[in-house]
User: What shape does this take?
Amino acid sequence: MVQEKRVSYMNKKALSFIVVIVLLCIATIYSATSGSIQVSFTELVNGLISGTNNDVQVIKDLRLPRIIIAIFAGAALSVSGVLLQSVMRNPLAEPGIIGVSSGAGFMTMLMVSIFPTLFFFTPLFAFLGGALAFFLVYSFSWKSGLDPLRMILIGVAINAVFTSLSQTFHYRGSYTSSMVTEVTTSTLSMKKWADVEIMVIYGSIGLILAILVYSWCNYLALEDKTAKNLGLNVNVARFVISAIAVLLASVATATAGLFVFVGLLVPHIGRILVGTDHKWLIPFSSLLGALLILLSDTLGRTIIAPNEIPASIIMALIGGPFLIFLLRKSDRIYGN
Amino acid sequence: MEINHITYSYDHKVNHLDDVSGKIDVGKVTTIIGPNGCGKSTLLGIMANNYVPLKGQIVMDGKSLITVKSKELAKKISVVHQHNSAPADMTVERLTSYGRLPYKSMFSSNKTTDKEVVEWAMEQTNLIDKRNKPINTLSGGERQRVWIAMTLAQQTPFLFLDEPTTYLDIYYQYEILELVKRLNKDQGLTIVMVLHDINQAIRYSDTIIVMKNGKIVTQGKPKEVITKSIIKKIYGVDVSVKEDEQAGLFTIPIGI
Assistant: This one.
């Protein structure tokens, strides 16, 4: 009986992984072949190899970069959510909600506006901004322990401040008013292979590091005292995991713009499907997050083509009701 | 293990422990008792190096506790806390295996030893049948045994328990205490625990430390320490202390 249960549990986990991987492959192919220019899959492959098909060349220059960025940004933001939730032991911790993303966004915009020549260092500025926001939230909410409620309230406040700072900045520089949208939403159009490079390099580093620290995330799910008595250096673990989370969120924000909600929704679904063990939760969340953002972006640019709806808006539109549905349906939050 | 002139304060205003000294005998069961807020859990926390004392030190194997690295310490002392939490889908076996953390490093771990020790720990706590159960499906007593199994997997010579029986009904209370006693007798573990029930302390301890207002009032064998006058002084309760052939020494409150 017990054995049976365990087998079915393992199957559910394996099945979830297989389904998400298959869906991600299908979504990638669909996304690459549809839109304002439509080609078949074979045409696409042949064109990429031979380099003689003009349609495919356009797809390669315009569509592939945004697909890759969508995949990596989704993975990065979701894993960032998982990590922040484990560090703060709070299911509401999410880079968008507690201000890490808006901090990263603001700092990037500020520095690039002041020193336009330093565009190459965008990820660094984003990281600094994200880290600043996280540090502020963490230190203001620390009072002999992290009170979950206080942390979220302070996070919301910090987020509001950075978001308004960004908006102020944009309204002042009205000549760039077309960029205003980028502060609050995300458009993945006009992404170049240079952006892909940044996203893939830093994103991969962050994701690999996240997988390496999975056991720390597991131990932090216990009480601090318990983890400490097991010999875990709780402060070091928290610091390292937070830094990885901020790196992931910042680089995603710097290249793909602000996405709220992914880091909240994806880990929640992940816990229902593969459980709370971070050994599975981290890889699964990265796949599911990639799938969700890619789907949102693909929908956004195909529903009312040639016009576009930003991926973050689609994401929130689908994600909001879905999260409510999940919360109504399950009686557990964060597995407690 | 020696407790040398420990002073500690949570807020730097009131001393919650005031120049406390005492001794823990290796291979024995020592129980700390005293009224709420007397500092018993604080003292246990300092002995586990969870708090750093303002003055004084805990000496173990001739070394001051604060100089010992946290992983090394986790091979010497394991602690069962009063409040514990873990994700709901955590299974018995997985939680028990967390006790192997001090023996793991980033690049190496001895999987066979780990597995054997986890098996042994679950056996000791009678949890083999429940190994794949999520802990939130277990009874309070079983759950407490899982936390003990985790500490056993640490293979430490010292085991500390902070009010291990508090949330349990009487059957599970005695089940836990019998387990602790067996671990002391069979495995030679040095036990230090905080208890509320004086009669349980008498029955299961070699030594009792009595505390009040951040100080140790007295320390000694149950028969020496548990007297009418000391209980009155500590708790403000009048008791009758009796000895019975079957029950041994016991106390019954008769008024305040």
About this structure: The mean pLDDT of chain B is 91. DSSP finds nine helices and twelve strands in chain B.
